[in-house]
Amino acid sequence: MSVSITPLTEHTGAEVHGVDLRKPLDDATHEALNQAFVDRHVLVIRDQEFTPEDFKTAAQVFGMLQPHDKKARHLPGYPDVYFVSNDEFVNGRRIIPGETFHTDHSNHPAPPKATTLFAVQLPSRGGDTQYVNMHRAYEELPDQTKQRIDHLKAVHVYISKYSPRPLGAIDEDSVRALPPPGVHPIVHTHRDNGRKALFLNPVRMESIVGMPDQEALALIDQLMQHATQERYEYRHQWRTGDMVIWDNRSVMHQANPDYDMAERRFLYRLMLKGAPLV
Ligand code: SIN
Fold it and tell me: What is the mean pLDDT of residues 209-220?
């Protein structure tokens, strides 16, 4: 079987055909996929047929599994395989996981390097996932803004008092197991591709070290408006059997609640361990 890896936009995303990640890979394919992940930030691996165990095998082509914070939310019988769906309600409000731009689990001192979803059931239309390239967004900032933010650090907690949206339910055991807040540079240098990138997450950013909150919120808002422009985006339209893996150090992402909520959107989800950002 020959593997093809084709860019999806000029800056972000590649589509992978001709690989079955249930099966062992030869070294060249393993390396090519990992290099594409680092260079293209989002890989769309088509036509996979996974059980939950197969999905774990596939994810581990790219690294080591990192447990999710919400321990109680997992596939029945698979405590380490999380899922996203559109059928959770908290206080009468439907929760759409990932409904605003964010990066995953940035409340961890060593945030996950990657997240992957496997599409099991999809609405007949809509429900795309948008990704924005945080390298490109940083590179195109005015020099003056770069100088202002280059050495700033932000405190990321489980849920910021300024979060634009609620998160799904978390049980008490999971709360007790949460790590201390992550304190991350707003501009970091990616360990594997050497490029600088913005690292932002309004859901979890509680403060910028040494800055009054109102000033910090205005700065985060300004950076978010810049980073989420369409020119930095790859927008993924899901097909059943897609495995999409993205680099949380390089992109932010958001889910779209623009579909008929009577239809089910259900995807398996795993994350991969990362290292502290530098
Ligand atoms: C997420 O934020 O991980 C979920 C994204 C999606 O469901 O499209």
Answer: 98
